[in-house]
Amino acid sequence: MPDMLEKKTPEHLEIINDIDVEELASSAQFFLGQAIQYQQLMMMYDCAIKEVRTKLEVLNTEMSLRYQRNPIEYINCRIKKPVSIVRKLQRKGLPATVETLESNAINDIAGIRVICAFIDDIYSIANMLIRQDDITLIDKKDYIKNPKANGYRSLHLIVEVPVFFSDQTRNMRVEVQIRTIAMDFWASLEHQLKYKKQVDNETEIVEELRQCAETIAATDERMLKIRNQINGKDSGTLQPESDPIPLLEKFSLSTNG
């Protein structure tokens, strides 16, 4: 079974050129006022990531033994950057305080990205994760069934997991993004390109990227079909709309950002 190394991508690097001085000053003032409380909260989010990541790794190990293949290729984890947190709170018109963060005003402070080989693996992993007794589904957004206008595809889940500390138990939220290798390849390149300061023919480039996303999606479907043919299974392409993660519907969904 291959090791699931934490792959670093440019998306996890802070884009300093895109942050103005006023935002930096605002976030600095926020941390100076509540530095200890903020550090403690980020520690809790980091522990929540460890809890969910371990669950995913256990599932991958089990499926490797049962089905002789790993559905998960690798996993990336991150804690949202301080400036990004302050920026998102400002967009929501909320005060930049630890109390605001503790009220779950932002659901994606802790993030895990799961990269799978095939489209159907995405839904299998999602189902196996959310049916665990201590995982509560808060929200889901299926950008595979309903891609964004720019072509972006991924399955996003907001889950809540209890984390046991020495003197308390805290229910912490983690955003889990699950996508194929091809989807991640497109998203990483698109992320790099959109941060270029001066781009000629931007409209044409946006359309080219969208068309590339369509081509990559078609390739994902063809690869799944080839795998099914090799395995002697139904060679039809998985239709996400016919496999809408039935277990997700058992939970009440919220729309907090």
From TrEMBL:
It holds the Pfam family RelA_SpoT. One of its GO terms (biological process) is guanosine tetraphosphate metabolic process. Residues 77-201 form the RelA/SpoT domain. Pathway: Purine metabolism; ppGpp biosynthesis; ppGpp from GTP: step 1/2. Gene3D superfamilies: Beta Polymerase, domain 2, Nucleotidyltransferase. This is GTP pyrophosphokinase family protein. The lineage of its organism: Bacteria, Bacillati, Bacillota, Clostridia, Lachnospirales.
